[in-house]
Amino acid sequence: MSGKNSHGSEPSREDKKIIVWPEKLKLHGGEHPGMSLVSAPLDGNNFLTWSRAIKLALGAKQKIGFIDGSYTKPQENKEEMDQWKTVDCMVASWLLNSISKEISEAFMYTSSAQDLWEQLEARFGDSNGPMLYDIQRRISSLSQGDMTISAYFTKLKKLWDELAHLDPLPNCSCDASKLLASQESSRQLIQFLMGLEDTYDHIRSQILLMEPLPTIGKAYSMLLHIEKQRQVHIAAPEDGAMNARIYEGRRQFANQNREKGKGGLDKKSQYCDYCKRSGHTRSSCFKLTGFPEWYKTLLDQKKIENRSSNRVFNASAEERLQKYDSNLEISDLIKMEVKRAMNEQRYMPEPAANMIEYQDFTGPCDHEDFGCR
Question: How many Å apart are CA 92 and CA 123, to the nearest integer?
Answer without folding.
Answer: 17
